[in-house]
Amino acid sequence: MADATIAIRTRARWAARTPASRRGLVIAIILHVAIIGGALAMFFPFLWTLITSITPGANLTSTPALIPANPSFGAYAKLFSDLPFAQVILNSLLLASVTTAVQLFTSSTAAYAFSRLPFRGQNVVFAIYLATMMIPLQVLIVPLFVELKTFGLLDTYLGALLPTFASAFGIFLLRQAINQVPRELDEAATIDGAGHFRIFGQVILPNIRPALATLVVFSFMSSWNSFLWPLIVLRSPQLQTLPIALAGLQGQYISQWDVIMAGSVVSILPMLALYVFAQKYVIQGVASSGIK
Amino acid sequence: MKRKLVGALAVAGVAALVMTGCASNPPKADSGPVTITYTNFISAGANEGNLKKIVDAFEKANPDITVQVKTIPYSGYATAQQTDLAAGTASDVFDIDGLSNYQSLEANGQLAELKGVDGKVYNSGLLDTYQTDGKQYALPTSFSDVVLYYNKDLFDAAGVSYPTSSWTWADETAAATKITDKAKGIWGDHQPVTYNEYYKALVQNGASFLSKDGKKAAFDTPAGLEAAKWLVDKSGTTMPTIKQGQGTADFDTNLFAAGKLAMLHTGTWVFGNFAKVPFKWDIAVEPGNTKSASAVFSNGIGVYAQSKHLAAAQKWAVYMSSSNEEVNVRLDTGWELPTISDSAKLATYLNKGAPANRQAVFDAAKQIAQSPSLGANSQAIQDAMTAALIEAQSGRETVQQALDSAKTKIDALLAG
To answer: Cα separation of A57 and A66, whole Å?
Structure first.
């Protein structure tokens, strides 16, 4: 009954439209279909992950059944029974949080200096900072490892964290953002008697919130997903992070794909939460700084 | 590519760091309790508990030695190993990922010579893999290999006698030709037309992929041509063509499982695929032409040249590769095959059911077609060889033309 009423109403509205607005509607429908199609294509890998995680004894060589025959959450239980999974998640959270917090501090203060405190050779120093972004970690890993060995920091959290404390990318991102803040605001604050610390804390930081949120997401994500460095530095099982524990589920010949995928699903959740929370700022931040 | 760069850097660093010749002293037993470290990838994934059983048994038998196990995912093992060696932080005992890993470790002086190891305990071919100039620098821990699977029912129906270890290529071709019945969709043989099969076929024909100094391709000989034809000429006569699906993933095992393929060249790791087939099947050592040679994949275990506890480390390496406890844990749990020679100890595996001739798995490992060390351009060389063979298989080039162009390309790649 209700459906019929709606159908009648819809037909009535369609008839009431002018040809121009009809064309607009058709275009809107086409666009929506295209966008929904794109979204589904993007979403499909995650769906596959999810389906594999609840398919016992799944393998990746055959096409997945969209509805598994015997869905089971056994793989999730196995994560916690086979691995010190709670410990592993805590380790990852700890490393990612500390990295993010420290990077926010070092990047924002350095960016402030590069933007607001002119000094000789500023551009050269900044260029050198940027140049470090172009050296892949793989090249640095042996010297870095030897260096940390000399400090006695192998197999410690600090050893895993230290190289992540300063981020050339973060400094670059925030410097661009601070450059956008009108200098008149600083000058007004100076007239009111504010020093650099107050200008930094009360004028600059509130104005670059989108960039800060972007940095939070980027640095948390890179620490959360980081594989190579933690793999090399952290050897004790109780210090291991998520990506390494997940890689450990893949043997030389045999891999427990359902458990690996269950672990992947769990590992996506914190990033998803962070992203949903910071989404609004991230889009602003990326749009205003022109960085992807 | 990046990983290779790291590898090159690590090796360069290592060469500077390591004193040469420090492996020549026989290990003296430590007095008092010692702790040795063991870095492994073989237990990663599913066998951590099984490794612990072996460690516990070892510590019980050797109360003075404690083994501290560090497990690294296989995917990150190469990087971790290179970093550790460059920094001098490698464990006393560590896993070796097959022949090429062994060769680079040995060449860089990272492995202590293992003296006084009882070689008779091990499968001879596997033991040889980890020897250089007659000296033992590492021990094999597990292996798998490629054998000839055959469908007994198809052989019986065609009235052909089953493959034996004394078969040659001619026997295989004759049987395959007799069994092939294209009208019924029955094929006699399947062997991938790839670099991996080709280097092995060369050894089976008394030839080799590389020249003795390893600097040039050496398959431009009559024996090399014959080996290439051995693979290529199956296509369309006794083996399905590329058009019919040959070469796609799982095509060969599916065809065999469907009862439409009489002989299949593949690894011992697909036994499980044929556990429930409605026909009888067995395996044999792959036929050679002038000699028998099989593709064998093994993992090894070595002692770090700079270990401070060489005696205890060697004891563990021997235990982890040949003790009864290790053999039993592996056989009981199906954790790859042990590398020992005594068939009495392997009885639980040998008598496990189809295939009946499980002894062939161990016999194949006695005569190994070792994979050539191709250097930095290894992958490109393998790809070039496979591509050339497929050109010949598809009929776009003659076998001779394909080999000629492959040699030109591969010589250039070997030169760097």
So the answer is: 15
